[in-house]
Write a structure and sequence with these properties.
mainly alpha; 76% helix
Amino acid sequence: MATFPSVEWIERCEKVDPGYVDRVLRMAEREQKFRHIQTYVGQVFGLVVAFAFLGASTFLIATGHEISGAVLGTIDLVALVAVFVVNQVGKSPLQEESSDKGADEVGPAGSTKAQAATEG
């Protein structure tokens, strides 16, 4: 997790390149909007694929191919459950606590705190 730079560092950046901080903030806002759109589109495509497999499974069962339809439907449901389970595991608070705190925090010079500790 990156921390916010100090006010002094921001002021120095603004003196060197006026408007720098504003450009960085706009860039971060655009990136966040892009990621939200990308996530939404991915969810819609995932839903379409899941329903397509479910429809194909139903069609196979209705046309007398019960085993093929059941296998396809089972694979579809197992894949959907797996996506939700993996997503929940990724958001586990236990994983966040066990990660190295401060290892990825970026300092004003662009180096991480972990790098500064090993160099200093």
